[in-house]
Structure prediction request, 198 residues.
Amino acid sequence: MSFSLPDLPYPSQALEPHIDQTTMEIHHGKHHATYVANLNKAVQSAPELEGKSVEELLANNCAAVGENLRTAVRNSGGGHANHSLFWQMMAPDKGGEPVGNLGEAINSSFGGFEQFKEKFSAAAMGRFGSGWAWLLKDMQVVSTANQDSPLMEGKFPIIGLDVWEHAYYLKYQNRRAEYVNSWWNLINWEAAEERFNS
Ligand code: MN3
Prediction:
């Protein structure tokens, strides 16, 4: 069994003007595709890893993976898991405020949606260099470096924001804050709610 690049759940221009078509095409078709290809290369060289899900490969800081492949799986497996979630938790004409149980959990954990938004944006802005900001199922807001996935530490991400420059540089150049601010218009809270309830 090998990993494959999931289709985008919408056309590549669908997230404009917040994320431009060219960025989406390169980000999904080149960056994510490369993580998938490199993950397959790593797994194919180690028969004992065959058939494991990406979650199983990443669990406990990639404990199932031999030391010689651990960095490759951490980077490429993390990249595959992170981007697969990222595409799903966005959709055109979304944004607004979270719904249902997730909405209630956010309100009670952060004191309100605006407070949550501020905390999450600060995590996204505070990540030096490349990485991700996350809302975890236990209602922590964290950021990780590179392609490190919360799954490595047994944490379940509900939404994630890619703050690598490849995610925004064509349109926003160095203005990460504008990208982060614009991304709030894309969050698919219904999908996030389903994930939270799962
Ligand atoms: Mn990316």
In short: The mean pLDDT is 97. The first strand starts at residue 131 and ends at 136. The CA atoms of residues 8 and 87 lie 6 Å apart. The pocket of manganese (III) ion is lined by residues 27, 31, 83, 162, 164, 166-167 (CB under 6 Å).
